[in-house]
Amino acid sequence: MPRPLPLALVQAEPIPAGTPVSRFAEQVEDVLTSFPATRLVVCPELHLFGSRVRPGERNAELADAAEPLDGPRVRELAELAGDLGVWLAPGTVCERGADGALYNTALILSPEGRLAASYRKVFPWRPYEPYRPGDRFVVADLPGFGRVGLAICYDAWFPEVARHLAWMGAEVIVNPVMTTTADREQELVLARANAIVNQVFVVGVNTAAPTGTGRSLVVDPEGRVRVTAGEAATVLTDVPDLDDVTRVRRHGTAGLNRVWSQFTDADQPLELPLYQGRIDPGRWSPAGAPPE
Predict the structure, then answer these.
(1) pTM of the entire structure?
(2) CB neighbours of 280 closer than 8 A, spacing ≥ 6?
(3) How far is CA 42 from CA 11, 24, 106, 253, in A?
(4) What is the number of helices (H) and of strands (E) in the chain?
(5) I need a surface site. Which of 109, 113, 225, 276 has the fewest CB within 10 A?
């Protein structure tokens, strides 16, 4: 059965750190006024943490703005999602963990006004970012639509992230980005590659120029770019059918390649020395995969 998920990708300049959530609420309300059928609003990485200071003072600015996930910022964001009745991925927040460390954390807020999922960036962009790495992969179920996996910017450079999210049943990977540097071109290739090798949708939302390099996009499970933006501020809309993931995995990319059906019961486990682990054919299929 078709499972369309109307998306609005907000490619915008970041809102300065410390700005009241009410300013962001106005932005989201404007998006929904223009695109009222939207069910999931997605914003770039650190969208609520734009910088007011010189680069050398940035880490102190982030530390000053950090809050725990049970703090007022996340409560207000959850209330916003509930008031508007939409799924809201407001980019990432600078989280102050119980251990006192800073984490770059992606959120999904539900139409019922609750925090549905939070994911701490596993691969901070070193040596430039001050965050402690997260220690787990995260997916969230959007009832009536499907399962969403979370990755943040530089995570896309590590294939283990997208592979684990797909194995956990993600049908779409949401990747908020704040790329201000010359490597956006490579990120576009990685978005397609992660979609192809895992047969998932990939949604990449970047900060707009002049701060960021834009070029947000949606990629389908066969690696085709469905929609893409330039560098300027815009709202990119799309309605991917998440049942395309089921179709592609069942029939194969281009009707050929069925990467999640690669192994048989007769195959031996493949040792993975890098991870001190293995690929076990009996554990290869994604969670929730359709029967053969």
Answers:
(1) 0.95
(2) 269
(3) 9, 12, 11, 27
(4) 6, 15
(5) 276
Output the average pLDDT for the chain: 95
Eight-state DSSP code of residue 163: H
Q: Give pLDDT tens digits for 147-182.
A: 999 999 999 999 999 999 999 999 999 999 999 999
**Position 137, amino acid:** F
CATH architecture of 7-283: 4-Layer Sandwich (3.60)
CA distances to 154, 201, 215, 241 from 192, in Å: 15, 9, 13, 17
User: Is the pLDDT at 82 greater than 50, yes or no?
Assistant: yes
Query: b/e per residue, 209-240, with b = 16+ CB within 10 A?
Result: bebbbbbbbbbbbbbeeebebebebebbbbeb
Tell whether the model's pLDDT for residue 289 goes beyond 80: no
